Amino acid sequence: MGDEEMRAIEIIGYDASANTYPTYAFDSQGNFGTYKASLQDGIWRFTGETERAKVVFSNNDKLINIKWERLSDDATWLPWMDVKLNKES
Fold it and tell me: Which residues span the domain enclosing 16?
């Protein structure tokens, strides 16, 4: 992020009874997260206890826009970060 290199891995399963994807993410800075993901109308949504994200792939699948929100102390979802990922050929 920024000038700092970060590596991450995410393990994604599938819960057929709930039609959701449990996910487990780990990064090189020691952070981890557990989320439930769902797909509806081409939009992925990841929801954790205190964070959530909306993930949209571009039409050519070379650009991914991610909008993260965090839960505030007063239980309000607030913008946290916008991430843009570009796939190189």
Answer: 8-86
32 CB contacts (<8 Å, ≥6 apart)? Answer: 24, 25, 26
Q: Specify the pLDDT at position 20.
A: 95
Answer whether residue 79 is part of any domain.
yes
Global pTM reads 0.82
pLDDT bucket at 82, cuts 50 / 70 / 90: very high
**Phi, psi dihedrals of residue 72, rounded to the nearest 5°:** -80, 170
Within a domain: 23: yes
Contacts 24+ apart (CB under 8 A), 58-66: 61/87, 62/86, 62/87, 63/87
Q: What is the DSSP string of 38-76?
A: EEETTEEEEE-SSEEEEEEE-TTSSEEEEEEEEE-TTS-
- Using the predicted structure, report yes or no on whether residue 30 has a pLDDT greater than 90: yes
Q: Is 63 within a domain?
A: yes
